[in-house]
Amino acid sequence: MELPSVRQALRLFGRAAILRCPNCGGGPVLKHWLKLRVRCGNCGLRLERGEHDYFVGSLMLNYVITGTLVLVTMAVLLVTMWPEVPWGLFQYAGPAAMLVLPFVFFPFTKLIWLAFDLMLRPMNEEELEWHRTADSEWSTERTAS
Ligand SMILES: [Zn+2]
């Protein structure tokens, strides 16, 4: 397996970070904040690449990003404000952030997940054509061409 260059990887993740299709940089890719479209509106890539439960890994990614951000923020606040630590803020804002941030990060982590996948399993013309012509949201069977 050949890994992409740093530049190619940055392009994939950069597109995901601005909520564009990691494959083509176009869109639209969102139906609404919590729902991706079936296909990229520009290149026709089915965003789950034809696989059920494709985005399960993005939920783990979402939780890791949220947890890391909340922990680092709390650690920085703890160290900088010691000994006048606002424990009440920690008690309520920490759990609130853990509940709210996954929704904020939701579309980003899905597209970052897709970017990871495209980095490790690059898109080719054959697969893209399969996505464009597939009539169902999920199908791993490719029609003979
Ligand atoms: Zn696209």
Note down, in words, how this protein is organized.
The protein has helices at 6-17, 56-81, 87-120, 125-133; strands at 30-32, 35-36. It has one domain (6-132). The model has no long low-confidence stretch (mean pLDDT 91). The chain has 145 residues and is mainly alpha-helical. Helices cover 56% and strands 3% of the residues. It starts with 5 loop residues before the first helix and ends in a 12-residue tail after the last helix. The protein binds zinc ion.
Outline the secondary-structure elements.
Layout: H1 6-17, E1 30-32, E2 35-36, H2 56-81, H3 87-120, H4 125-133
Antiparallel strand pairs: 1-2
Helix pairs in contact: 1-3, 2-3
Zinc ion binds next to loops.
The mean pLDDT is: 91
Q: Report how far the terminal alpha carbons are from each other.
A: 25 Å
The number of helical runs is 4
Strand content: under 5%
Identify low-pLDDT runs. none
Question: Any idea what the radius of gyration is?
Answer: 19 Å
Question: Are any ligands bound, and if so which?
Answer: zinc ion
Largest beta sheet: what is the strand line-up? 1-2
Question: Can you write the helix and strand succession as a string?
Answer: HEEHHH
Report the biggest beta sheet as strand number plus sense, adding barrel if it closes: 2 strands, antiparallel
The total count of strands amounts to 2
Q: How many domains would you count in the coordinates?
A: 1
Helix content: 55-70%
Instruction: Output the structural class.
Output: mainly alpha
What is the 3D form? elongated
